[in-house]
Structure formats: structure tokens, C-alpha cells
């Protein structure tokens, strides 16, 4: 289990991370979502011991990142942002080097190597120079490097950035597979990527966590009003504008008329579906309804709202 | 020790996996060989003094070139982050790097043994003691410059900048001895003690004094310590 409490990081005058707290349970895949520069990478760098927090606690079970840095580093596998690799080495040499630092040598290394080759699909490239590998393979090599010691915790910083759609699907599948037995904490600035892979989403904006929950929870917590688009024929304009008198739960938003088809937009709160009332009202007023589609806010809108809102305030 | 060896091996592997090491060794041998043999047969003296005079000059540029990439490259490519998040102590990382650089310098120095062989086969009355101490002095100087170069490499992520800082620093230590006539008497002693040439010439003369050894070892230790501190401080920024 990872427990982060009141974690802050200041770079000279900039507050990159502002007193964030969260927990991650074993066996969970958690996505850390935020725009570029929101503080994701800084948080991950602190969790892996690369940066020292300005204040706050990071605990892995009963170990503390400040006092037991190496003990924690033994337990985690980390894929840094942009996946830096020693490109002049061969794939197995690189993995052997990292395994060596983790004291996995000889027979144990051979076993670990064949395990990560299997898990990350590196069969064809083991003897190649890393420089000659494609971007997708490099990403797998980075993952293999993070997993060579079979860590219980994987921390992945933007693991699928820069990959083509097929590779994204592959890496996603791999992460999901790994998440069955490991705690995975992955960051991304792309919602779909996270949504398709993780159990739980945390959204960070300007150094603060603004949302934390499963995608369903986020939807129900942050979903605002529903926009209802209606296309009708033969409606008198005043009957449209005065609908609220009869159907109090809806609010008139806009009206567009073209070729005697009226496109109307109403708005209503998510738990007060007024569609039946609108239908009856339309019949009474001799509208012919051609189309009626409610547009619910999706996770993407929520993400956009949450990560741009405070820009406006700032 | 285990981790130092792993870092050291990887670094040497990188030197020899690229043209870097070969270019260094060949040019180092050619430059030294040229200047040495140029005058060797003119003077008709059975010693390697010319070699011991020229190598420190060649060091001034070669060692910063060898060491410039040691840490700057890791900073540049981001592999520093991979390394820093491994259960590895900073001193192990720095010592492994330093030793790899030093090993290459020793190999270069080793190639000059060919001149020693020439000397033994054509010369008379060869002073083996002086030659041994001359080589010892050059090895110590090489180690010190490598430590300086490693430090220069740690303060930046640009290898060219690391090279320039490295050349500048070793040049300062090299030139200190030549500034003695310009400085007041009261501090001349200190400056002389800091000058690398002073200690090298003592050792080259065949006087292996503990003061000279202490100078070299403390300089090496000091710059390795500075390097470790530079890398540690980054985590707190």
C-alpha cells in the first residue's frame, strides 16, 4: 500500500505540488491524470526517491521514502517520463546491467530475463542494439527494465505517450495484465488512455488533486446539467420560450430556425428527466417532434472542466 | 564494491563500444610518440624525461575529453533518473564512473611503455627507479585530472560545457606553479602546494614523499566528494 500525506514540492518559487494526499491499495491500478505541468511527474519523482519532497510523507507499507529510500527502491519498478535508455547497449546488456545493480546475477538473471522477455514481448529484439529498436519496442524495454526484479509496485510515467494506436492497445493490455498482481500507478495527460486501463482515476490540476474515484464515481459527482437537443416542426416561438411555466424542471437555452425546422436547446438537472413532460407539452401545442437527444456530460468534459477551471481563477 | 564494479564495467563498455576509446588511445599514443621520439635521438640521453614533460600537456585536453561525458551524458539523456531511482548509492555511481575514466587514461599511459622498451633496447645506464616514479607521478596526475573532469561533467548536462569547465579547472592547477613569480611571498607557499606541477616534479625526480601522495589523494578525494554533493543536491532542488 502507498500512503501519501500532505505532499508538497516547491521549485524555487513555483509550487509544483501543493499538499496532496492519497492512498493506493495493493492490486489496484490507479491512473494519475493531469494536463502537462500539473505536477504529475514531480509527484512520481518524489515517490521514487528521485526528488526529495519539500514537505509531507510518502509511505510504502511501513517504509518511509526519506529514511528507507533504497528499501523502497528495491520494491518499485519505475518507468520515467520519455523512457530514457542507454541506446548504445544491446537489450539484454541493458537489462543485465540494471539487474546487476539489483543483485540479480547468474542463473537468477537468466530466469528474470526470460520472464520479462515473455511478459513484455521482447523475443525478437533481445540481441539488438536499443538504438535500432522502434519506439514501441523501446517502451517495452523500458517496462522490462522496470520489471526485471519482479517488483510489487510499478510506477509508470506516461507509459504510452508517443506510441501509435496499435502499440497503445498492446501496452495497455500489458499494463492491465500486470495490474492483476501488482500495484500500478500510472500517469497520463490523455483521458482515454487512463480510462481504458485503470480501476481508479486521480485528477491533478495545478499541484492539487481535484478528483479521485472510479470513472463512474467521477461521472456522478461531477456531472452537471444535461443539455437536451430537440428538433421540432410547427412550433410557435412563444410556446417554446414559455415552456418553463408548464415544465418547471427545464430551462430554455436557445432556438435556431432553419427551413421551418426549429432546433431548440433545453437544459435540466441530471436527476430530473423532463422528456415525458416535454412530449406532452409538445402534443398540446401541436409541435411535431423530429428528434430529441439528451447530451450528458462525459468524463472528458469533466476532465476539461476540472483542469481548466482554476486557470480562469488564477 | 559490487555496484561500483557494475557501473565501471558499463562505462568501459560504452567507451569501447564507441570510437571514443580507440580515438583517444591512438591519438594519445601518436602525440606522445611524436614529441618523445622527435628529440630522443638528438639528446642521446637514456631517460624518458621528454615523455614525462609532454604527457602532462597532453593530459590537459585529453582527460577532460575522456571524462566530459561520464555524468553529463546521463544528465542529458535522462538515464540519470533511471540510475537515481535504483537502490544504488551516489558514491558507488561516481566512483564507478571515475574508475572507468581513469582506467582509460592508464591504458593510454600504458601504451607509452613502448618508448620505455625502446629505451631499454638502445640506451645505456637506464635509471629504472626514475622511470617508475615518473610513471607513478603521471598516473596520480591522471587520476586527479579524471576526478576534476568527473566533477566538471556532473555540473551540467552538456558535454561541451563539461569539457570546457574541465579544461579550465585542470589548467588552473597546471598553471598555478607558473604564477608564483607574480604573487606575494606570503601566499606563494600555499599556491605552490596547490600546484600540481610542484608535486609531480617532486615525484618524477624520484622522491616519493608522503606529502606529494597526500596532495594527490586528497585532491582526488575532494573532487569526488564535490561530484557526489553536486548530484545529491539536485534531489533537493
* Largest interface between protein chains, with number of residues from each side: A-B, 30 and 23 residues
Q: Which range does the strand content of chain A fall in?
A: 25-35%
Annotation, overall tally of beta strands of chain A: 14
* Mass-distribution shape of chain A: elongated
Q: What string gives the helices and strands of chain A in order?
A: EEEHEEHEHHHEHEHEEHEHHEEHEH
Oligomer: heterodimer
Strand content of chain B: under 5%
Q: What name does the CATH topology of the largest domain in chain A carry?
A: Rossmann fold
- Helix content range of chain A: 25-40%
Rg of chain B: 19 Å
Describe the structure.
The complex is a heterodimer of chains A (314) and B (237). Helices cover 37% and strands 30% of the residues of chain A. Chain A has 314 residues and is of the alpha/beta class. Chain A folds into 2 domains: 2-221, Rossmann fold (3-Layer(aba) Sandwich), CATH 3.40.50; 225-296, Alpha-Beta Plaits (2-Layer Sandwich). In chain A, strands 6-7-8-3-9-10 form a 6-stranded mixed beta sheet, with helices on both faces. In chain A, strands 2-1-4-5 form a 4-stranded antiparallel beta sheet, covered by helices on one side. In chain A, strands 12-13-11-14 form a 4-stranded antiparallel beta sheet, with helices on one face. In chain A, a hairpin with a 2-residue loop joins strand 4 and strand 5 (63-64). In chain A, helix 4 (107-120) packs across helix 5. The longest helix of chain A is centred in the middle third of the chain and has 15 residues, at 165-179. The mean pLDDT of chain A is 88. By secondary structure, chain B is mostly helical. Chain B has one domain (2-236). In chain B, 83% of the residues lie in helices and 0% in strands. Chain B has 12 helices and no strands. Chain B has helices spanning 2-17, 19-43, 49-67, 69-77, 79-84, 90-111, 113-122, 128-154, 159-175, 185-194, 196-204, 210-236. The longest helix of chain B has 27 residues, at 128-154. Chain B starts with a helix and ends with a helix. Chains A and B meet through helix 2 and helix 3 of A and helix 1 and helix 5 of B.
